[in-house]
Structure formats: structure tokens, C-alpha cells
Fold these 2 entries.
Entry 1:
Amino acid sequence: TQLLEQSPQFLSIQEGENLTVYCNSSSVFSSLQWYRQEPGEGPVLLVTVVTGGEVKKLKRLTFQFGDARKDSSLHITAAQPGDTGLYLCAGGQGAQKLVFGQGTRLTINP
Amino acid sequence: DTEVTQTPKHLVMGMTNKKSLKCEQHMGHRAMYWYKQKAKKPPELMFVYSYEKLSINESVPSRFSPECPNSSLLNLHLHALQPEDSALYLCASSQKVSSSYEQYFGPGTRLTVT
């Protein structure tokens, strides 16, 4: 069974600071998605990366897929209170299954 | 449009009740999923439908019964649930049947079993 280890599990920082969330595995994934989830709502897809070494940017968020497609990172620049939420990475495991990391609960304090 | 809708938003049911959760998508996706999510945990896969046929059942108890009436709709029928089944139930869909690529989630149904 493929596992995704996400770190840190909790992160509380001040508005304007930068942060990085990591998602690591010993297994290769065909694709990796990042989601953000608000309390009581479903996860919202932020990005999908499929190519080793790929970097994608979404405004202040930068996503990177490791060269070997075993790890990924999410970097947020100048964090804002609206970035608060649960961030989940999820890797494609064969056909139709996603392996989820345990999530990073991010709080941005004004 | 990447919207998946779910009804109801909240549901409270007794252990002897029968209820159904509904999910709908109009993106032409041919794979649809049911997940269960407990507090502070990631979603856990329950069922996968591909081209309206059940393709994956993650050893879910028979008190949960999925149904896919057509390519846009997915139901989850609930009967004789236990309090530990209380959770957020999420529906998702994806365009590609042969991979887990880009699953889009609905807002979920918050289920409480009393």
C-alpha cells in the first residue's frame, strides 16, 4: 500500500509570512493533487502535477512535484487569513484510487 | 463548470431509519465516488462507479448501499446505521475512468446517527 506522509500536521503563522508544506512517499505516483478543505465543506482541487520536476503556480501558491514523482511541496508566499484551511495532498494509486496524506491544518493569524 | 452537488447538506437519522444521500454532476464525468470523512482525518474511499457500474467496494458494510441510476447521478442508501457512522459523506467525480486523475468533490452531507 502506498503511503503519503504530510508535514507539518499543524502550522500557525502570522499574516505576511511564507510557509512550505511537504508531502513525501517512498512510492512513485502517476499524479499528485493538492486540495484545500474548509470546515464542513468538501475538498477543493487546487492543482494537479503529473511530470517529475513540474512546478505550477497559482497566485501566491507554488506547487512542485519531485523529480522522481515521490514527493511534492506547496509553498505559500505572504500568507493571508484567507489561506486558512486544511491542505491535503493526494497521489494517484493505480486506477481510480487516491492516496491521501493526513493533511496540514494551516492557520494564518491577522 | 466543475460543480458536484450533494443533498441534503445535513441529515440526522435514527438507527432504525432508512435514508438516502444524493449526488449529481453535469461535467460528463464517467467515474463517481463515495468517500467518508471523520473529523480531523482525510477522506476514506467507500465506493467507485465507472460507466455506471460498481467497480470498487472498499469492504463497506452492507448497511451502506450505493446506486448509480445514470451517468450524472449517484445515490447512497442508508439503513440501520450505527452512531459511529456519523461523518461527512463526500461524493466526487472524475473524467478519466482509468486513473484517479483530478477528482472533483461535492460539498458533502453531514450525517449524524442518533
Entry 2:
Amino acid sequence: EDKVVQSPLSLVVHEGDTVTLNCSYEVTNFRSLLWYKQEKKAPTFLFMLTSSGIEKKSGRLSSILDKKELFSILNITATQTGDSAVYLCAVTRETSGSRLTFGEGTQLTVNP
Amino acid sequence: DAGVIQSPRHEVTEMGQEVTLRCKPISGHNSLFWYRQTMMRGLELLIYFNNNVPIDDSGMPEDRFSAKMPNASFSTLKIQPSEPRDSAVYFCASSFRQVQETQYFGPGTRLLVL
């Protein structure tokens, strides 16, 4: 059974801090790893990673995948209160590309 | 451009009643997904469709759950009879088949079964 473990489960920081969220996985025939942000509503897509070592970046957010060590990190620099959310990591398999297996998520709270 | 539309947004019902959740995917998307989110189990895929055809329903918890997609712009998830343990937020998501991992989620239906 596919397994996705995120850490920490929750994190409280001050505005301006930099945070690193972790996602480790065990999946047969790995295809991709995805990051989603969930505020008090639906998850919204952030990144999809398929290749090791290639950083994906969007504004203050960046992510990288290590397929050898089976993990990914999501970095947020200069955090803002609007970054407060649950960050979800998900993986897919080659044999069932559409089935996203999600981790528990990391609850990030950014205080002013 | 409208996103994924779900209705109702909230539903409170009594155990044993039938519940029907509705979803309209983003126009042009040809894959549709139903998820359930609870505190205990997180976000779980229930079923997904490609071009209106169910592809993987292995996440459907039991026979009380059924899903249909009669056309490209509409899908339903039905629970009959409902039980208190079905209480959860149910999300519908859609994507282009070519990039199915990039899924766009609807606002969800919060279901409470008393």
C-alpha cells in the first residue's frame, strides 16, 4: 500500500520566517509527487514534481524532489499570514496515474 | 471562468436517508474525481471517471455509495442509506486527461448525518 508521511504535522511561525515542509513516500512504480495548499476550503494545486533535483519555483514557494531518498521538501520564504493553510503532499503511480494518495498534511500557521 | 461547481454546499440529514451530491466539472476537462475528507482518514479518492466512464472505483467504501456521470458536464455521488460515519466533506475535482495529476477541486459539500 502506498504511504505518504508529512512532517511536521503542525508548525507555527512568525511573518518573515522561512519554513521547510517535508514529505516522504513509499510507492510502487512512482510517477509523480504533488503539493497542494488547502485553506478553509478546497485544495489548490501548487507543484508537480517528476524528476529528481529539479527545483520548481513559484514566487516565494519552491519545491524539490529526491527520488533516491524518496522525499520532497516545500520551502516558503518570507512567510506571510496568507500562507497559513494545510499543505498536502500526494503521490501517483505509473500504473494508476490519476489516483492521488495524500499525506496527512502539515498545518502551517503564520502569526503577524 | 467558473471552477468546479458542487451542490449542495452543506447537507444535514438523518441516518437512513438518501443523499445525492452533485458536481459540474470545469468545461473542457475530461477527467472527474470524487474525494472524501475526514479528520481520521484525511483526503481519500473514492472514484474517478475518464470521458464519463468510471475507471477506478476501488475507493468507494461500500455498496451504499454509487456514482454516475451521465454526460461531460455533470456527475452525482449518491449514498443510500446514509450513516453517521459518512459525515465528511466530499470534494469533486476535474482535470484534463493528459495531465490528470493537476486536479482542480470544487468547494466541497459538507455532509452531516445525524
